[in-house]
Description:
Structural class: alpha/beta
Radius of gyration: 19 Å
GO molecular function, one term: S-adenosylmethionine-dependent methyltransferase activity
CATH topology: Rossmann fold
Strand content: 15-25%
CATH architecture: 3-Layer(aba) Sandwich
Shape: globular
Number of helices: 9
Organism: Modestobacter roseus
Number of strands: 8
Protein name: Methyltransferase type 11 domain-containing protein
Helix content: 25-40%
Number of domains: 1
InterPro entries: 23S_rRNA_MeTrnsfrase_RlmA, Methyltransf_11, SAM-dependent_MTases_sf
Distance between the termini: 60 Å
Pfam families: Methyltransf_11
Oligomer: single chain
CATH class: Alpha Beta
Order of helices and strands: HEHEHEHEEHEHHEHHE
Largest sheet: 8 strands, mixed
Amino acid sequence: MRSFEDLVAEAEAAPVDGWDFSWFAGRATEERPAWGYARLLIARLAGADTALDVQTGGGEVFTECLGRAARRPAVVLATEGWAPNAALARVALAPFGGRVHEVGERDPLPLADSTVDLVSSRHPVARGWDELARVLRPGGTYLSQGVGRGSNRELAEFLLGPQPDVGQPTLAEEVAAATAAGLQVVDAREQSTRVEFTDVGAVVHFLRKVVWTVPGFSVEEHRARLASLHDRIRRDGSFVCHSHRQLIEARRPR
């Protein structure tokens, strides 16, 4: 079995740009929600003339779904707030004629009113419901899979100790905000899904990539707890925690 230092050094050297999770193969698994976000998005894309993916990361999920859609939108757009990811997304969307706008997660969307048939977003940092409602055309759809409150709490509390129950909005709060913005919520679901890490390097890479799990994470600051986690994984075979996922689909009334 590889040493703690070797696993951590490898994880610290791995790039964290984009939302490609292939690095975790054989080292971590995450259960997928029952609703199948990609399948839903592929179906919605086939009926859209203009599609916008908000906070697209490197465009990985969006382009995969575009490639599998029975009919592709004539206009393909995306936003991304982190420059390295925006660069990846531009490359990924180029074969679809896509344009990527580099704007922050909470900035206004750089689009005119009532110009988009479909807005999608997988794991957004925040949802600006008024902006989403503004850019959707009457009859347009917003489809999103989000990260719910308390996601991977067991991992965060292993490193940090007990944490307050704050953070991402609850599903009920998101539904209320969407409704207040003038959207009609047609689907709202949530599910807890199993996450399993089989070495401490996978934990380090995950925390460097999914930065909101342990804000300000660094190996140096959390080395003692990471070493304890390494020992636990060697003893038990893995470390298990649970993510919390939300599905929201909303429409702008005609």
